[in-house]
Structure formats: structure tokens, C-alpha cells
Amino acid sequence: GQQVMQIPQYQHVQEGEDFTTYCNSSTTLSNIQWYKQRPGGHPVFLIQLVKSGEVKKQKRLTFQFGEAKKNSSLHITATQTTDVGTYFCAGDYGGATNKLIFGTGTLLAVQP
Amino acid sequence: DTEVTQTPKHLVMGMTNKKSLKCEQHMGHRAMYWYKQKAKKPPELMFVYSYEKLSINESVPSRFSPECPNSSLLNLHLHALQPEDSALYLCASSQESEKLFFGSGTQLSVL
User: Fold this and answer.
1) B10 bridge partner residues
2) Would you tell me which of A5, A112, B22, B55 could form a disulfide with B50, CB atoms 3.0–4.6 Å apart?
3) Cβ–Cβ under 8 Å, residues B91 and B8
4) Residue B54's beta-bridge partner residues?
5) Measured between CB atoms, does B45 come within 8 Å of chain A?
6) What is the pLDDT along chain A (112 residues), one digit of tens a residue?
7) Do A97 and B55 touch (CB under 8 A)?
């Protein structure tokens, strides 16, 4: 079946440092989405990438979709304490119905 | 209205009880989802309804029974659950192939 792995599992940074999480799918994706889940909260949508090689930016966040549409990354520049949470990629395997499979997640801790 | 509302927020039930989780959205989304999330784990897809019809069942045990009475409502009926079923149950909705809007979830404890 489809699997989506993320590394690292956990990252602890000092405020102001950069952070990157990587996402890999066992099979080609139709598109990939990224979500953030704060402690005690629910996943909140960040962005969707559809095209091979696509790069999108949201302020300090940069998202990339690999050329083969099997991997993706999220990079945060100059982390802030508000960035704390678990970042999940979610792979859409297409087909007639949305089948969004979440990656294993990366928990980001930011020390002031 | 961009909210997905789930009730109850917390539920404690015994293994012989029957209970239901409810989910509602008024965004006109035609796809609705149930996910199960254990602590420190990713959300795990259980069921997908598309245009009020069950389109995906990820081999979920029959003690979980989904129902979609209309395009705005999604229920999850629970019966004879096990302690290992204790988790956060998340409902979500979306337009086709677009982002998911999640509810705040029901934290379920099975004693």
C-alpha cells in the first residue's frame, strides 16, 4: 500500500535557526499537501503542490515538490516560537476519490 | 462558514456501549472523511464519503460504522469498541482533490 515517510521525526532548534522536513512517498503522487498541527489541536492546511518541480513560498516557509512527484520538502527560515507543532505532508494518490495519506510527521520544538 | 463542527469533544465509553460521533459542515463540500489519530502519530484514514456515498473503507473493523445522512452531515457509530480504539477521531471535508478542513476532533476513551 501507499506509504509516506518523513524525516526527521523530531527537530529541536533555537529561535532564529532554519528548519527543514523531508517527505517521501513509495509511489508517484497526484499532488501533495502540507498541514501543521499545534499541540492539542487539529491539522490545519498550509499548501498544496501539484506540478512536478513546483516551488511555493509563504513568508518564511518554502515548499518544494520533486521532479518525480514522489518527494517534497518544507523549509522554514528563521524559526519563531509560533512555528512549534507537528508538520505533516499528505500524499494524494489520485483516482476517482480523494485518498489523502498522511506522512509520519515531524515535530518541531523551538527554544526561545 | 469555514468550520467543521464535531460533537462531542470528549467521550468515555465502556466496551459494551453504543455511541455515535457527529460531524457537520456547511461549506458545500461533497467529500467527507473520518480519520483516527493516536498520540504522536499521523492521522490514519478510515472512511471517505463522496457525494454521500461511501467510496473508501480502509479495512476498518465493523465495530465502526459510518453514515452520511446528507451532504452536510457525517456520523460514526461505535459499538463494542476495544481499549486500543481510544484515540482522537477527526472529521474533515473538502471539495474534490482540494485541501481538507478538519474539525477539532472527538477524544475517545474506551474503558
Assistant:
1) B107
2) B55
3) no
4) B49
5) yes
6) 678 999 999 999 999 999 999 999 999 999 999 999 999 999 999 999 999 999 999 999 999 999 999 999 999 999 999 999 999 999 988 776 678 899 999 999 999 9
7) yes
Beta bridge partners of A69: none
Q: What is the pLDDT of residues B34-55, one digit of tens each?
A: 999 999 999 999 999 999 999 8
Query: What one-character DSSP code corresponds to residue B101?
Result: E
Burial of B65 (0-12, 13-18, 19+ CB in 10 A): middle
Which residues in chain A have Cβ-Cβ distances shorter than 8 Å to B45?
Answer: 99-102
* Cell (9 digits) for B48: 471517505
8 Å CB contact between B68 and B76: no
CB-based contact (8 Å) between B104 and chain A? yes
The alpha-carbon gap from A77 to the nearest alpha carbon of chain B, in Å, equals 24
